[in-house]
Write a sequence for this structure.
């Protein structure tokens, strides 16, 4: 069974630039999550989708971050404009449904210079 | 505010020893809990799920103490390959990961 796919794996940008990440969850998984993980910390949930609806985006910095899952399958996360403190690994995960175990993609490592 | 707390460690443990660490949570209504393992520069991977009093899988045992609101992870006969960061997560209306406990198994 294919796992969660993410791209790109690495991205280096300068501050104030824009960047987008893509995630394709495991087939049939209704719930999709985007996390930000800063070195030495646990993953912080940015946004959670159930199919194409947002369940929780309370920790998403909405002035610069946006995410969508238009058809309820794959998803994109965008940062515009990026700040130095956005340097982190962005993890996408999916689960069959709310509250069930999550499967993580390999992550996108973002460096903002 | 709902919190999930873990001792960050590191726990430095000789190979073959038994080690245990806890994860405390603040939401008394939480029903399910998970332990994830994360290797350096890798994504988290599910280690164990805990839905009732506990769960056991080989050398790993997870226990739930509802009265004191913590879950524990016990690793028996530790191996060098157990060295990793162990994250607990409480997926209720808010999904909260702990910051993780770093474990180093020493040869």
């Amino acid at each position: 069974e294919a796992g969660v796919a993410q791209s790109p794996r690495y991205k280096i940008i300068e501050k104030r630039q824009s960047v987008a990440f893509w995630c394709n969850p495991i087939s049939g998984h209704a719930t999709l999550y985007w996390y930000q993980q800063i070195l030495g910390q646990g993953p912080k949930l940015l946004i959670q989708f159930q199919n194409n609806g947002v369940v929780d985006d309370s920790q998403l910095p909405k002035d610069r971050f946006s995410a969508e899952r238009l058809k309820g399958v794959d998803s994109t996360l965008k940062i515009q404009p990026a700040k130095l403190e956005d340097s982190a690994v962005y993890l996408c995960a999916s689960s069959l449904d709310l509250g069930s175990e999550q499967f993580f993609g390999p992550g996108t490592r973002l460096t903002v210079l | 505010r709902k919190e999930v707390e873990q001792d960050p460690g590191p726990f430095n443990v000789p190979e073959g020893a038994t080690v245990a660490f806890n994860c405390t949570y603040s939401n008394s209504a939480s029903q399910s809990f998970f332990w994830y393992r994360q290797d350096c520069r890798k994504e988290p991977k599910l280690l164990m799920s805990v839905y009732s009093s506990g769960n056991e899988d080989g050398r790993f045992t997870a226990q739930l103490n509802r009265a004191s609101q913590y879950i524990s992870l016990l690793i028996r006969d530790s191996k060098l390959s157990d060295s990793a960061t162990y994250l607990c997560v409480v997926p209720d209306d808010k999904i909260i990961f702990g910051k993780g406990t770093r474990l180093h198994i020493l040869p």
